[in-house]
Amino acid sequence: MAALPRHPFEAVGDDKLREECGVFGVIGTSEAANFVALGLHALQHRGQEAGGIVTHHAEQGFNSVRRFGYIRDSFTKQSVMDQLPGDVAIGHVRYSTAGSKGNTQIRDVQPFFGEFSMGGAAIAHNGNITNADALRRELIERGSIFQSSSDSECIVHLMARSLQRDIPERMKDALRRVEGAFSVVAMTRTKLIGVRDPLGVRPLVLGKVGDGYALSSETCALDIIGAELIREIEPGEMVVISDEGVTSYFPFDRAKGRFCIFEHVYFSRPDSIIGGRSVYETRRAIGVELAREAPVDADLVIPIPDSGTPAAVGFAAESGLPFALGITRNQYMGRTFIEPTEQIRNMGVRLKLNVNRALVEGRRVILVDDSVVRGTTSRKIKEMVLDAGAAEVHFRIASPPTSWPCFYGVDTPERSKLLAATMSEEEMRLYLGVDSLRFISLDGLYRAVGEENGRNAERPQYCDACFSGDYPVRPSDMMARGFELKAAE
Amino acid sequence: MAALPRHPFEAVGDDKLREECGVFGVIGTSEAANFVALGLHALQHRGQEAGGIVTHHAEQGFNSVRRFGYIRDSFTKQSVMDQLPGDVAIGHVRYSTAGSKGNTQIRDVQPFFGEFSMGGAAIAHNGNITNADALRRELIERGSIFQSSSDSECIVHLMARSLQRDIPERMKDALRRVEGAFSVVAMTRTKLIGVRDPLGVRPLVLGKVGDGYALSSETCALDIIGAELIREIEPGEMVVISDEGVTSYFPFDRAKGRFCIFEHVYFSRPDSIIGGRSVYETRRAIGVELAREAPVDADLVIPIPDSGTPAAVGFAAESGLPFALGITRNQYMGRTFIEPTEQIRNMGVRLKLNVNRALVEGRRVILVDDSVVRGTTSRKIKEMVLDAGAAEVHFRIASPPTSWPCFYGVDTPERSKLLAATMSEEEMRLYLGVDSLRFISLDGLYRAVGEENGRNAERPQYCDACFSGDYPVRPSDMMARGFELKAAE
Amino acid sequence: MAALPRHPFEAVGDDKLREECGVFGVIGTSEAANFVALGLHALQHRGQEAGGIVTHHAEQGFNSVRRFGYIRDSFTKQSVMDQLPGDVAIGHVRYSTAGSKGNTQIRDVQPFFGEFSMGGAAIAHNGNITNADALRRELIERGSIFQSSSDSECIVHLMARSLQRDIPERMKDALRRVEGAFSVVAMTRTKLIGVRDPLGVRPLVLGKVGDGYALSSETCALDIIGAELIREIEPGEMVVISDEGVTSYFPFDRAKGRFCIFEHVYFSRPDSIIGGRSVYETRRAIGVELAREAPVDADLVIPIPDSGTPAAVGFAAESGLPFALGITRNQYMGRTFIEPTEQIRNMGVRLKLNVNRALVEGRRVILVDDSVVRGTTSRKIKEMVLDAGAAEVHFRIASPPTSWPCFYGVDTPERSKLLAATMSEEEMRLYLGVDSLRFISLDGLYRAVGEENGRNAERPQYCDACFSGDYPVRPSDMMARGFELKAAE
Amino acid sequence: MAALPRHPFEAVGDDKLREECGVFGVIGTSEAANFVALGLHALQHRGQEAGGIVTHHAEQGFNSVRRFGYIRDSFTKQSVMDQLPGDVAIGHVRYSTAGSKGNTQIRDVQPFFGEFSMGGAAIAHNGNITNADALRRELIERGSIFQSSSDSECIVHLMARSLQRDIPERMKDALRRVEGAFSVVAMTRTKLIGVRDPLGVRPLVLGKVGDGYALSSETCALDIIGAELIREIEPGEMVVISDEGVTSYFPFDRAKGRFCIFEHVYFSRPDSIIGGRSVYETRRAIGVELAREAPVDADLVIPIPDSGTPAAVGFAAESGLPFALGITRNQYMGRTFIEPTEQIRNMGVRLKLNVNRALVEGRRVILVDDSVVRGTTSRKIKEMVLDAGAAEVHFRIASPPTSWPCFYGVDTPERSKLLAATMSEEEMRLYLGVDSLRFISLDGLYRAVGEENGRNAERPQYCDACFSGDYPVRPSDMMARGFELKAAE
Predict the structure, then answer these.
(1) A64 touches chain C (CB under 8 A)
(2) Does the residue A486 lie in any domain?
(3) d(CA D300, CA D322)
(4) Which residues are involved in binding [4Fe-4S] cluster (chains A, B, C, D) (predicted)?
(5) Which chains have 3 or more CB–CB distances shorter than 8 Å to chain A?
(6) Do residues A399 and A467 make contact, with C-beta atoms less than 8 angstroms apart?
(7) Which of A380, C320, D182, D366 is 20 to 30 A from B309, comparing alpha carbons?
(8) Could you say which of A115, A143, A161 has the minimum Cβ distance to residue C160?
(9) Taking a C-beta distance cutoff of 8 angstroms, is the pair C350, D223 a contact?
(10) Annotated binding site for Mg(2+): which residue ranges of D?
(11) In a domain, B483, yes or no
(12) CATH code where residue D312 lies
C-alpha cells in the first residue's frame, strides 16, 4: 500500500548488491532483547531499512516492536526496550527486496508472529523463498488471510495448517514445502530454533553467551555481546535450543552445501569469521591474487572506500606499490541530500567521497573496488580522480563480472541493468573511460577463498550464480514472471 | 537555561580533543545556501552539535535557520532550504565548548545576527575569545542585552556600539577589543568578510567558485562545491569580498603566525591541504618519523580507526612490518546506545569497534593512534585486543603527550583529567597496561610537519600549547577563574 | 503486546459510558476518502482512540491508512490523503473496548482487510461479537492466523473459509455464525455493503450524495458531506450498493428490533436524527419528563456540560425555573495534564470545568446530567459547586440508574464499579453528598423517546440492558468468563 | 524570518476579533511553574499560537521554556516542567499580532528575559505599545541589538539603559517612555511585579494562593489553582510582590480608567468576574437589552456557538421565545482540515458547525451572535440554516457594529475589511441575506455593562474605539504608517 520513498542519494551514489537481511536470536539470558538489539546493530550492514525484535516473557507473553530505520535509532530507547521483556528473543534487520519495489510497510517487517493452538511462535529469515508466489496462491485458496507481502508469512501459514502437535515439527513440515535460500531463526515460549536451507546458501552461526545461546548471521554479532563462537549451523540443519541444551535435526534430503561466495567478496563484515578464516584476510588474499593475475605499472594503489580497502592492501603488498587512502569518505553522510539544481545533482558522489588532490596529482593510480554492478559510481569516481589531476587510472575489481541477478535474498538490479550482462570487458573499460580495467577470474576468486584447485565446474563448491548464471535452486516464481535461465552450453 | 543532555556514549567511548567549530561563507552565486550547506557537511568533523546558516536576499532580506544535529539532517530538506534564499550566505557548525557545560541552547548556535542603524550583519567564528567574560561584564554595565552564552555575541555588541559608519569598519573596531584565537566569517547585505586573528591560530582559506567566492575553515569544503583554492587568509588579515572583488586589510599589529599544530595531527580532514601539502601526507610522515624514533619488534601494525590510519600506514612502510585493518569500526554507530546493565555498560567501545580476532590471535601487535587525552578509550581497546588473543600490545602515538588544555576553541578536559598532565610516560604505560608506549617527540612532530630543524624554542613556529604549556595568547578569563600558567623554567 | 498508556485525566475526570465505534462508507464519488474522513470527523464522539480508512482505486488497488488519535490530526494531511485514491471507501473510529485493557495496537484498528481468492474485501463494524472467543479458538484450531485482538477479524477469517464464490455471499455465511450487536460497513473493489444485526441494536443509516451513496452510524455525518438521508437500514438487513444501485437482503431469521436506548440518552450527537426526530429534541423531552417526575424548589437549573444541556433546557422550561450556563468547560482541554503533586492531583475536574462563582453563590442549584456511571465526577462537580457558595445542590439525572454492563460494543466498567449496582438511590445521594438526587424512571424514559405507554415489559421496544439487566443477546463469551445474568424474578 | 503558516481553516471559518495575549504570574509557592501552566491553560482563549514560562530557582537561576501551540501540549510534559524549577514564575500566551503578519518566530514568544548588571528580569505583557517603532529605531541607533520583532523587547532595552539601580525603578523608567495599552507581569529573582497602563485598557487581577500571590489577566485563572481574588490592579498601578508582601506604586500621571468594553462582549471567559459581576451575567444582560431594543416575531432563539449563548439565553428570557441549541459545534475541530476540492472548500464552516435540521425546519429563527467582523462566517451560517429549511432568519448582534480597528493588543482586520466600516446596517442585512439584522446600540451596551445612563459622550467610561473610532491613546506608529483618525465631527 503506501510507499516508503526511495532515497535519491542511494539511487545516485551507490552501486552495490545489497544483502536483504540479518537475523539474530538468543535464549537463556535476562538481557535477551538488549542482546538482540546489539547483535542487530552489528549486523546493520546486512539491512538498513527496518528492524524488528520479538521477545517472550513468562508472565507478559510475547512482545514485539518493529520499526523503520537503524537499530540505534529505535532499539536504544528505554521506552522501546521496556516493551521487550523476557529471556528468549529473535530479531531481524531488512533491506527492501527487489520484489517489494521499495514499498515496504511496517507489517512487512519481520519477525512474523503466529498464534497456533499449542501456543505462539515468531519467525524471521534471511534469504528468499523462490516458490512463494505459488504457495501464497494455494494458501489463500484454502482460506488463509495474508497480512503482508513478505514471503516469510508463507512459512507461518504452512505451520498453522500442519497437523503436527509441536512447533518444531510444524516448522519442519512447513520448510519442506518451501524452496529457496533461507537461514531461519524462530522462537516459541521456551525454545530458540535455527535452520539453514539444504544448500546452506545463507550463513548462520551458533554461539554461547553465559549460560545461554545465540544464533547469528555472522560472528561479528557474537563478538559485540561477548558470545563465543561454537560452530556454523550446517547446510540443511535445524537446531532446537531449550533449557535442556542444543538438539540437532536434518529434516531435508542431504545435499552438498553451496555457500554464497559473495559473502566473502562483499556482504559479510571484514571482522567476521567464515570457515575459520577472517573475511578481511580472505579479501586481502583476493587482492594478492588479483595483483598476480592483472599487474600494472603505476605509482599508487588506492582503495574505493570502504569495501575495497582489504583487497587494495593485498594488491599493494603483492605488487610492491605504495598504498594510500587517496579517497576520503565523509563519515557524516546520511541517506539523503537535497539536490536542487543540475549543478548540484551532478555532484552526487562528491557528497560522500572526496579525492585527496595533493596525493593523486600527476600520479598513475590503481583503484581497487570489490565489484562493479551498474558501473554508475565507478564512472563518477574515475572522473573525480581525473579532475584531481591523476595521470592514469586503472581499475582492479576484486570479483568477476556480475552478470546475473541473485534470487536468493539479495537485492540485484534486473539483468539488463548489470553492466557485465551487456558489455564485454573492453566495452566496460571504454564505458568507464579508464586506462585499464581487470576483474579477478572466477577460478582466481575460488583460489583466494581457499579452494586451491579453483572452481570444480562439475560440482561447484559455492553458489556463484551472480557470476556464472548457474542457479543451484530453480528460481520458479521468477521464471513464471519471465526470467530465462542461461542456455545450456 | 534548559540543558541538552550529553550523550552517554560520547562520554564512554571517545577520548579525543574536539574542535569547536567550522565556518563557511559564499558570495556571488544563486546557490548560496546550498553551497554553504554542502560546505558545512564537509566540515561536519569540526562540530556535530548544531549548525546554522544565514542568507541575504535582495527582496526577502536576511534569513536564518539554526538547528541541533547534523547538517544532513536539517539542511537537506526542501522546507528548510526554501527559507534561505539569496546570493550571500554564511554558516557554522559547532561542538559544545568546555565553558558551556553541554547546556547549549539553540540561541547559542551561530551565526549571530545584529541589526545596526546602517543595516544588518551576521557573524560566525571558529575559535575562542579569551577575554569574553570581561567584555561581557562591561557591555552589560552599559546596557547591552545578551541573548546567548556565546562569546561571539560580544563581537556583535561591540560592533553595535562602534561609532564607525560602515560594517567592516565597525568589525575592525570590535575585533581590536577582542583577544584570543578566531577565524571569523561575516556578511552584510552585499559583502562577505573573513578575518583571522593576529597569530592565525585557526585556519581559514579563500576559494573561487564560478563568478563568486568562498571562505572555508578547510579546503575539503571547497572541493565539495567544486571551488578552486586561491590561498590561505593570512594571520591578522581581513578580506572584504563584494561585487568589486576581494580587498585585503591588516587591522591588527603585525605578528608572526602561530598556526595550531594539532590541526595537522587530528582536527583537519586528511584530504584537506595545509601549507601546500595534504594532511594525509603529513600524518603519514608523522608515522614514518615515529617508526624511526620508536621502533619495536612486532608482527603487525594496526591503526586505531579512523584517525590513526595514515600514521599507521607510514609506520608500517618505514618499519617494514605488515599493515592490517585489525580493528573494524561499526559505521552505523549513532551517538547513543542504551546501557541498561553493568554487563552492557562495560562494553562501551565494543558498540563502535570490534577487533578482528582471526588476525590478531597470537600476534605481537603495534597499535597506532593519533593522541591520548584521558586514556580511557586506549585502555578499553587494549583490553579488546588482548581478549582477542594478541601476544603483545605496543602503543605508538602520533603526537606528544597532551598535558595542557587548549583555550583557543578546542574542547579539552580540565588539566587534572589529562593523563599526561599527571603521569610520566612509564606510569601511563602501566596505567594502560601495554607492553610498550611511545609518543612522538615535539621536535619529531615539527620535523614531520615540515620544519626540518624541529621546533624553534625561542620563537616556536606553531601554537603547541597543549603539548608545551606555552600559550601564545594570554588566557585571561581562565586565569581569572583560577587557571595557572606553567611556571617559568 | 505493547500498551498504549491510558491518559490519567480520562481516569480522573470522565465518568461516561463510551461508545466504541463509528462507521462510515461511501461509493460512487471521486472524493471517497475525503468524504469518509469528513464523515468520521463528524462521528468522532463515538471513538477517539484511533481511526482507519480503506479505499479502492481501479488501478492502484486497495489502500489503507490507520492511525491513533483524532481524524483531524492524521486524515487532513495531503501526504496521508494522497495514499487513499479511489471511488469506494470505508472508515472507522474506535474507542478502546473494555476487553482490550487499553492496550490497543495499530493492527487492532479497523477496517480489516482480507485477500480472498476472488479478490479483496475490507470490513469495519460498530458493536461487539458476543461469541468471538469461541469462534477464534475454533478458527485457530483449523489453521487461521490472527493478526489482531479484534473480534472483527473473526468475520474476515470466517469469510476466507466460506465456500461461496462471491464476497456478499461469503459475508452472509460469516455473519450467520456470529452473535452480538453489529453494524457492519464493508467494501469490495466495486461494492459498498452495510449490515445491521438481527435486533438492530447499533444504528446505521443510508444516504445519497451526488450520484453515489453513503452509509453512516449517524445522520450528522451525512450532513457534513451534504448527503441526503434516505432511510435507516433495518434490523437484520444487508444492503449491497454498486453501479447498479442498492439491493436489499435479509439474511437472518427475522426478529423485532431492539435499538439501543442509550443512543438517545448520550451516545448520538444532538443534531442527529433517529426515528424522524432530532436527538436534541428527545433529550429536551427527557428533561421535561424528569421535571414532571421529580420537581424541586430551587433557584437555578444548570447543566453539566456539555451532555446535560438539552435535558436542562427542558427541565428549566417545564419547571419554570431560570436556566444558566453556570459551569464553563475549558475548550482547550486535551487528554492529559501533568499532576505532579497531591494538591494538583485533587484538582482533576477543575482543569476541564469551572463553576461560575458569581452566578451560583447563595443559590439553590439543580444540576442536570445525562447519566451517573461510577459517580466520581459527580462528586467532584458537587464539591466545586459548594465551594463556589451554592446554598443547595440537587442532582437530576436524565437516565435511569446504570446498573448493568453493556456487552454490545460499549465500554462499561465492570458491574461492581457501577454506583447503581451497589447502592440504593438514597445511598447514592449520601455518597454524592447532595441535597436530593433523582433519576428518570425507565417508563419515563420510554415515554420521552416516544413510547406513549412506556416500556412493554413482555416485549421491550429497546435494548435497555444497562438499566434493566435484560440482555436481548446472550453474552456467551462473558458468561464463560464468569459473568452472571440477572436472576429470574 | 521563517514564517509559520496560517491555518487555512482559521481564515475560512472564524470571524472574530482576537485578543493577543494572556499573562499570569505567581510567587511564594513551590508549585510556581505548575500554577503558571494551569493559569495559562485557563487563559488559553486569549491566545493559542504560543506560550512561554520563565521561573527562577535559588540555585538553578532563571529557566525558560517557550513553545508554539497549546499549553496543554507542551507544558504538561514532565520533561518540560522539570526544566522549570523555582518559586517565582511568570507566563504568557499569545495570539499573533496584526503587525507580525503571521510570521511569528519562537524568539518572538514572551516572556522576554534580560540580564542587567544587578541581575536578571523577565517580562511579559498583554496589549500593544503604540510607539514601539519609534522607540526601536532610537535604541538601535544607540547600540541595542534586538533579537525579536516583539514590542515587548523595547521595554527590556529601555530597562537595560536606565541608570536606576534596582529593577522595579528601571521598569518605571522604561514604562514612562512607552505609550499604549499594556498589562505587564514581570519578575526578578525575588519579586513578582504587575503593572497596568494609565488607562487600564487591558485587565489584570491580584489573587492569593496559599502563602503566595498570583497575578492574572482574568479571574478564571485564579479559580483553576484555587486562588482567591483579592482585587483588580488599578489603572496606572504597579504592584511589587516579595517576601514582604504587596507594595503599590502609581508611577504615571493619574487618569480616569477606560477599560476595554469588548472584554465584556467577547474576550473574557464567561466565568470570569469583572467589576464584581460575572461576565456570563453581563452577556445575558446584553441579550435582555437587545431583546428590548430589537424584538422580532419568531419561533426560536438559537445562539451561534459558543460565544453567542449567554446573550441568546437573555434574549429568549426577555422575549418569551423558546431557546434551543439549534447549531451543534464539533468539539473535535482542530485548526486545519484538508480541502482538496471546490466542493469541500465551500463547506468551511460545516466542519465546525452543523444545524439541527429537525429543529429548524419550517421555523422562524433568531440567531444571536456576539459580533460581526468581516461577516464571512455569518453568511455561511445563514446559508446552513436556510438549507436546513428555516422559514425566516433574523440576526441579533450583542455588540454595536465593529467599524474601527483596535491598536491596543487585539488582532483586527484592516479597516477596509470590517463589514461595518463600509456598509450601512441595511447594506449589511442585504449582504448577509437575512430577513432582519439588528445590533445593540452603544448606549444599550453601556447600560447592559452597568452604566445606567449609558455612555458619557464627554468622558466615556470605557475604551470603545472599535465601535466609536474614539481612540484614548494616540496610535502613533500606525499613523506614521498611514492610518487616519476619525475626522472631528
Answers:
(1) yes
(2) no
(3) 5
(4) 260, 406, 463, 466
(5) B, C
(6) yes
(7) A380
(8) A143
(9) yes
(10) 307, 369-370
(11) no
(12) 3.40.50.2020
In a domain, B482, yes or no: no
- The domain in which residue B365 lies consists of 278-460
The response to whether B220 counts as a known ligand-binding position is no
B21 annotated active-site:
yes
Long-range pairs for A204-207: beta carbons < 8 A, 24 or more residues apart: A204/A23, A204/A126, A204/A232, A204/A233, A205/A229, A205/A230, A205/A231, A205/A232, A205/A233, A206/A230, A206/A231, A206/A232, A206/A233, A206/A239, A206/A246
The C-alpha atoms of residue A184 and residue A419 are separated, in whole angstroms, by 33
Helix, strand, or coil here: C405?
A: coil
Does B280 sit within 8 Å of A356, measured CB to CB?
A: yes
Question: Looking at the complex, does the CB of residue C69 fall below 8 Å from at least one CB of chain D?
Answer: no
Mean predicted lDDT score pLDDT of chain B: 90
Say what the pLDDT of residue A20 is: 74
CA distance A404 to A478: 13
Q: Return the amino acid letter for B200.
A: G
pLDDT at residue A245, rounded to an integer? 96
Which is nearest to D338 in space by CA: C82, C207, C28, C48? C82
Shortest CB distance from B140 goes to which of D63, D65, D117? D117
For residues C218 and C163, membership in a common domain is answered with yes
D230/D308 same-domain check:
no
User: Distance between CA atoms of B217 and C323, rounded to whole angstroms?
Assistant: 74
How far from B341 is each of A171, B338, B347, B380, C234, CA to CA, in Å? 35, 9, 10, 18, 61
Q: Which positions ≥6 away from D432 have C-beta within 8 Å?
A: D375, D378, D379, D382, D395
Using the 8-state DSSP alphabet, how is residue A450 labeled?
Answer: T
The CA-based angle A62-A68-A74, given to 5 degrees, is: 70
Sign, Cα dihedral of D228, D233, D237, D238: positive
Q: What is the pLDDT of residues C256-306, one digit of tens each?
A: 999 999 999 999 999 999 999 999 999 999 999 999 999 999 999 999 998
Q: Could you tell me if D71 lies within 8 Å of chain C, comparing CB atoms?
A: yes
CATH at residue B212: 3.60.20.10
Gap between the Cα atoms of B41 and B381, Å rounded: 29
Angle between helices D376-387 and D425-432 (to 10 degrees): 50
Interface subset of A 444-483, CB within 8 angstroms of B? none
Has residue B18 got a pLDDT over 90?
no
User: D1: which chain B residues are within 8 Å (Cβ-Cβ)?
Assistant: 62-64, 83
Q: How many domains does chain D have?
A: 2
If you count them, how many residues does chain D have?
489
Contact call for C330 and D44, based on CB within 8 A? yes
Say if residue D143 is in the same domain as residue D231.
yes
Measure A261 CA to nearest chain B CA, in Å. Answer: 19
pLDDT in tens, B246-295: 999 999 998 899 999 999 999 999 999 999 999 999 999 999 999 999 99
Closest CA to C426 of C413, C415, C445, C439: C439
One-letter amino acid for residue B475 of the chain: P
Single out the residue of D6, D13, D10, D11 nearest to residue D347, CA to CA: D13
> Which of A46, A70, A72 to substitute to test the interface with B, most B CBs within 10 Å?
A72
- Record the cell numbers describing residue C478, joined without a space: 462473558
Which H or E element spans position D130? none
D322 and D224 in one domain? no
**Are A144 and C141 an interchain contact pair (Cβ–Cβ within 8 Å)?**
no
Tell me whether residue C339 is in a domain. Answer: yes
Closest CB from B44, B338, B356 relative to A280: B356
